[in-house]
Amino acid sequence: MHSIFKIREEHTPQILGLLNSVTLGTNGAQYRHLDNSQRIKECDNPLFLSMERNKVTIGNVTFCRRGDDWYIRYFAMSPRLQSAAVKKSKSKKSNLLKRELNDFFQCTLDGQNDLGKVSSFYAYIDPNNEKSLWMSENFGFNTIGKIATQTFSRVKPKKSNRVQKIEDWHEVKELVNTNFENYNYFHSAQTEKPPFYVIKDENGDIIAFAKISISTWEIERLPGRLGGVLTRVIPYIPRLNKLVRLKTHTSVVPEAVMIKDNNPELLDDFFQGILHQEEKSLILWWVDENEKLYIDVKPRMKWGLLHKLVGVNNANVVQRSNCTSNSNHPFYTSGFDFI
Questions:
Q1: How many domains does the chain have?
Q2: If you average pLDDT over every residue of the chain, what do you get?
Q3: Pairing between strand 5-8 and 46-53?
């Protein structure tokens, strides 16, 4: 690659500084992750591909190498570089970034470097985000699935004595693997990290399960048609200002959600119990639109006030691979990948 590109297995302060400076989103929701300093340390088997000029990191792609499949955890460029790249792309002029990254993706898929066998690269992008679409369209990624961003909010979530918090992965490992091992892009590198929440029946069998993460954002604009207006008025609206705190917006993010018989009443009790124990008011659940649990409960749940205002927003699953997957299974969504 061109000398401006550097490959590392550990992040640098300059990479973290770039990530902290980036505001995500363009036409819809706009926000900044406030947990980057911790999340970057938690990346599973990371590889950092950076653009560096005069000892300043101006771009970075961070991969989580999950066997043969590499997840693109971060794709960040300095605002000036990003604007220039998008402008050049629209005018169909070649540029160094596009050429070098395309070569990197293809050479890695073809096994022409020493990075090991790779079958696919994949990522989640906001279809309303011009910058994300630019990445997808210019680097040969195809949309292969859709993820729903479902909110569940309660100003005063109800306590449930049935909801238990556990820390032992081995207690739930077989359950998770059995239920999700056939899902596309299933991996347990992040899922096996506690905490976990369960509800057990009178026989001690688990009838509800989720692993959770906690995310903290600074929100500049909410999603949806009224997102800009809502962002300005939220601080003055009772109840809503307890659900959304623009400067430090904290959410519970579940994954590997399992509910016996896909019972919506059980899911409501479970989610409210988790919120009560975590002392939070909002769940952000990223889930494949074709997930059977989600299909069954979606029309029968009372998702809460925030859902009524912003609805369900979608993310595209995009992939670059030398072969197209024909699997009909849902995509596994790790909460870590979205926060």
A1: 2
A2: 91
A3: antiparallel
